[in-house]
Design brief:
alpha/beta, ten-stranded mixed β-sheet, two-stranded antiparallel sheet, 11 helices, 12 strands, binds adenosine-5'-triphosphate, binds magnesium ion, NAD, D-malate dehydrogenase [decarboxylating], EC 1.1.1.93, ICDH/IPMDH
């Protein structure tokens, strides 16, 4: 019996609804397999915690999370707490504190879910987007001077370090190598940005020699959006900067049906700290409490979590169960269906047990 301890941070909005659903299917999976024990500890951090305590998580929060094998995260965001507080106060503190520098976003069209792209079906689009998660355009460097005056200047400085770029590109090559097509696309904007972006290109070229069996190419981010829409079959693993991958993965999410199915993993590839697994979507206040949040993204990120823990068989079993629920047409309203969160959870649980 292999045992894992997992910190659950459901946080805000629909976060608790989808994390509940995720824990339910993971418990069914563990029980059904019999070789796996998952122990969940709940943390009530988030916007309600902030309203009571003035912080999104306690000062020793990272210390308390450090001993876990993984973090299962819901969503942050509240109507009455500013976005920079909710985001920086919890999620980004964990990402940065645990140096989760690789943000990994699998994207594919699941059976039973239609893409807005004509002629594109399940299997035609199967990507993993690797987003640099620790520096770049979101470094926070910059400033504003002469506020409000005609001569005001605002600057956001992109910071790319050789260490930071090498490690994310190496991670992406390794991931591409582990996938059947062994195909990597490195995205930059090195025609217009002549410093950090050119360094990305040079580092990609250098690291490619460590992976002679991986076929790779370079794309400018603007041309990349066109290729994603017009030739989705030509792509497999994609690596890009913090900003570029942020934008490309929203596009990818739209091409695969709904934000409600898109998962993401914040990985510390060196395994010094726990990695964090979450749906891409936010707290979705418009549907909170209605019982109709799509739990698929939260199930899929659990597949990523199991893979990261080395439980590949269990991960495959859960992924197949998710696909079976889609095939059976058990879909929430964001995907044009009528099912509730609970019905999708039951359908996936039944599929794990081999009942549908
Ligand atoms: P945040 O600032 O917290 O990221 P947001 O307003 O940017 O929030 P989301 O909360 O992700 O965005 O929601 C965007 C839209 O997608 C909303 O209309 C929401 O209802 C819908 N949505 C997001 N996640 C889901 C889900 N799991 N199931 C169904 N609909 C969803
Ligand atoms: Mg958002």
């Amino acid at each position: 019996m292999r045992e894992y301890s997992i910190a659950a941070i459901p946080a805000d909005g629909i976060g608790p609804e989808v994390i509940d659903a995720g824990i339910t299917v993971l418990e069914v999976l563990a029980e059904q397999r019999g070789d796996l024990k998952l122990e969940f500890s709940h943390f009530d951090w988030g916007s309600d915690y902030y309203k009571r305590n003035g912080v999104m998580m306690p000062a020793d929060g990272l210390e308390r999370l450090r001993k876990f094998d993984a973090i299962y995260f819901g969503a942050v965001g509240a109507v009455d707490v500013p976005d920079h507080v909710t985001l920086w106060g919890l999620r980004l503190q964990i990402c940065q504190g645990f140096d989760q520098y690789a943000n990994v976003r699998p994207t594919k069209i699941l059976p039973g879910i239609a893409s807005p792209l004509r002629d594109v079906r399940a299997g035609d689009l199967d990507w993993v987007i690797v987003r640099e998660n620790s520096e770049g355009e979101y470094s926070g460097a910059g400033g504003r001077v002469h506020r409000g005056l005609p001569e005001e200047v605002g600057m956001d400085v992109s910071v790319f370090t050789r260490v930071g770029v090498e490690r994310i590109i190496r991670y992406a090559f390794r991931l591409a190598q582990s996938r059947p097509r062994k195909l990597l696309t490195v995205v930059t904007k090195s025609n217009a940005q002549r410093h950090g972006m050119v360094m990305w290109d040079e580092i990609a070229e250098k690291i490619s020699h460590e992976f002679p069996d991986v076929t790779w190419d370079k794309m400018l981010v603007d041309a990349m959006t066109v290729r994603m829409v017009l030739k989705p079959q030509s792509l497999d693993t994609i690596v890009a900067t913090n900003l570029h991958a942020d934008v490309l993965s929203d596009l990818a999410g739209a091409l695969t049906g709904s934000l409600g199915v898109a998962p993401t993993a914040n990985i510390d590839p060196e395994r010094r700290f726990p990695s964090m697994f979450e749906p891409i979507h936010g707290s979705a206040f418009d549907i909170t409490g209605k019982g109709i949040a799509n739990p698929i993204a939260t199930f899929w990120t659990a597949v990523q979590m199991l893979s990261h823990l080395g439980e590949h068989e269990a991960a495959d079993q859960l992924m197949r169960a998710i696909e079976r629920a889609g095939e059976a047409g058990i879909l929430t309203p964001d995907l044009g269906g009528k099912a509730t969160t609970r019905q999708v959870t039951e359908a996936v649980s039944d599929a794990i047990r081999g009942r549908n």
